[in-house]
Amino acid sequence: MSSMNRLLKSALALSLTAAVAYPVAAQDIESQILQKFQQGAYSKKGADSCLMCHQKDAKVMALFDGVHGNLENSNSPMAKLQCETCHGPQGKHKGKNEPMVTFGANGNVSAELQDSVCLSCHQDAERMAWHDSLHSDDASCVGCHDIHTGSDPVLNRASEVAVCTDCHQQQQQDLYKRSHHPLTTQAGEGSMVCSDCHNPHGSLSDASLTEVSVNDTCYQCHADKRGPVLWEHQPVVDDCRSCHNVHGSVNDAMLTRKAPMLCQSCHANDGHASRAYGDDDSAFTGGDSCLNCHSQIHGSNHPSGQLLQR
Ligand code: HEC
Ligand code: HEC
Ligand code: HEC
Ligand code: HEC
Ligand code: HEC
Ligand code: HEC
Ligand code: HEC
Ligand code: HEC
Ligand code: HEC
Ligand code: HEC
């Protein structure tokens, strides 16, 4: 089956679902466009017929700086129906008289239909879990990707985080807290990106993590925290988030709270029952508090480290 037939088929299948969710005016445009797909009146001259009118738009022309405008790649839209591979058949379009598919949050067709255009070429292992990702419901491919450009900002590690935090304000705020992963573009930082931990195209894990669990995601880089150790600290094995806020925290080491409060949230009866935690400046409250003695908080390999003290 040609990719165009596949596209048409998925577009038609989607029209059934799209019709339910969309307001009447938008629905009219979408059904008009679906009808154009069905009629399949593609222009004879491909891009040339579009560029007669659109070549003054620098944004349009920037397509040819990127892979989708590459005339040499036999899989590129340019080797197929060119502009119309994505924007649909021209039909009688000469301006406002008849719509073409437009993309993005203000696009004139549903996100599902927009994405089906992209997936007609990009439905591969990398995007296997796309439909499990909240981005397939609440954003779209074009929510992150720019097409008419030679360098798509989300594909560049120096600008990816800015694209993500444009929508994810909470994570952006976390990045400016006292301790955080080196994700920002502040001087000396920026060596990591959100997609080191998250698969932007979805995964089978919660929050689209790159690995099967939170801890496995952390072990990719913090291999020293992976067991087995002789003396485990149970919450470390269970979930790093018992003590750490992964996107950033006002406390050192991205801790959810400071010791001793952090420790006492689980160790109500911490074995030092006679201690009063007031304003005394003892080893219990001063410096690293509980960690003054129980310094091997992630577990110990010392023969007598059962209390995580060495
Ligand atoms: C005779 C001139 C003409 C030709 C030929 C033409 N267009 Fe257009 N097109 C326009 C004009 C004018 C507009 C702007 C209409 C408006 O302001 O809403 C437009 C709008 C568009 C838009 C929507 C832009 C937006 O952001 O709203 C797309 C997409 C588009 N054209 C794609 C194409 C493609 C693809 C082709 C070739 C198959 C093509 N056009 C051929 C004149 C033309
Ligand atoms: C791979 C899919 C794809 C191809 C091929 C493609 N476009 Fe686009 N086009 C898009 C997307 C997506 C957008 C929305 C803006 C963006 O993401 O860059 C867009 C935006 C536009 C716009 C609105 C631009 C603006 O100024 O806001 C026009 C007009 C347009 N395309 C025309 C064309 C023409 C003409 C061609 C062929 C030379 C073409 N497109 C080829 C996907 C495509
Ligand atoms: C006709 C097939 C086709 C369609 C439709 C298509 N692409 Fe592509 N896309 C390609 C090809 C070919 C490449 C180059 C990949 C390669 O050669 O390995 C590519 C590459 C990409 C890349 C990587 C770019 C880079 O610079 O490395 C992104 C991101 C992408 N496409 C997103 C999209 C999105 C989003 C859409 C829908 C708006 C879309 N594509 C529609 C064929 C297509
Ligand atoms: C949440 C933002 C986001 C969304 C939504 C998104 N992408 Fe991506 N995409 C990225 C990032 C970041 C990369 C580079 C890192 C990576 O590959 O994991 C990328 C890489 C790519 C690439 C090149 C490498 C590869 O995976 O083959 C293609 C092609 C691509 N995306 C297509 C798509 C398509 C098609 C959609 C919609 C079905 C989509 N993307 C939706 C962020 C996104
Ligand atoms: C166009 C806006 C937009 C952009 C850009 C965007 N997101 Fe999202 N993202 C959303 C929305 C909307 C949701 C669903 C509601 C929510 O959790 O806020 C979401 C959900 C998520 C989730 C949790 C849900 C899941 O299981 O998939 C993660 C993780 C995420 N985004 C990461 C990223 C990353 C990483 C990037 C950049 C590569 C990114 N987002 C770019 C809008 C966006
Ligand atoms: C060090 C790994 C890591 C990095 C880097 C990271 N995240 Fe996360 N993220 C996680 C983990 C683990 C979760 C799931 C647990 C949670 O909610 O704390 C998560 C959850 C999320 C969620 C879902 C939140 C919710 O409340 O359900 C969003 C959205 C998100 N991350 C966005 C981002 C964005 C945007 C970036 C880049 C600025 C980013 N993350 C960087 C590990 C990471
Ligand atoms: C892609 C690699 C990578 C992944 C994945 C990763 N980290 Fe990190 N982590 C780093 C880097 C780099 C630093 C900064 C190290 C430095 O500054 O010396 C860091 C620092 C930390 C710190 C110390 C922060 C401070 O301010 O002292 C904690 C705590 C941490 N990570 C926890 C986690 C947790 C929990 C996860 C899993 C959700 C995780 N990391 C996943 C790379 C990663
Ligand atoms: C019981 C609470 C707790 C749990 C659970 C926990 N940590 Fe920590 N973590 C701490 C404390 C307290 C510190 C700061 C004291 C220190 O440096 O040892 C810290 C510091 C760190 C640091 C920076 C200093 C260093 O040792 O490299 C990293 C990285 C880190 N943790 C990663 C992780 C990872 C990955 C996990 C999950 C496998 C995890 N933590 C689980 C309490 C915890
Ligand atoms: C999320 C809950 C949680 C947090 C937070 C936590 N612990 Fe634990 N801790 C445990 C559990 C569960 C065990 C295993 C207890 C057992 O086996 O009886 C344990 C065991 C220990 C042990 C070994 C004692 C024994 O009986 O084996 C020490 C010492 C310890 N924790 C100290 C700390 C310190 C210091 C902190 C703060 C930095 C801390 N813990 C934070 C849950 C927690
Ligand atoms: C001055 C060193 C020191 C400090 C500070 C300290 N501990 Fe201990 N902790 C010990 C020693 C020694 C033991 C074993 C002897 C005992 O039971 O008193 C122990 C035992 C424990 C045990 C195991 C108790 C049991 O019943 O097996 C836990 C849990 C514990 N400490 C948690 C904490 C917490 C939480 C803090 C901070 C509020 C803390 N410790 C501060 C030295 C310390």
Automatic annotation (TrEMBL):
* Annotated Pfam families: Cytochrom_c_NrfB-like, Paired_CXXCH_1
Q: Which chain positions lie within coiled-coil regions? A: none
**InterPro entries listed in its UniProt record:** Cytochrom_c_NrfB-like_dom, Decahaem_cyt-c_DmsE, Multihaem_cyt_sf, Multiheme_Cytochr_ET, Paired_CXXCH_1
- Tell me if Signal is a UniProt keyword of this record: yes
Q: Which GO terms describe its molecular function?
A: oxidoreductase activity
The segment(s) forming the Doubled CXXCH motif domain are 186-226, 233-270
Q: Which UniProt keywords apply?
A: Signal
N-terminal signal peptide: 1-26
Q: Does the keyword Signal apply?
A: yes
Specify the domain of life of the species encoding this protein. Bacteria
**Where does the record place the Cytochrome c-type protein NrfB-like domain?**
83-167
Q: Which NCBIfam families match?
A: decahem_SO, paired_CXXCH_1
Specify the protein name.
Answer: DmsE family decaheme c-type cytochrome
Species name: Ferrimonas aestuarii
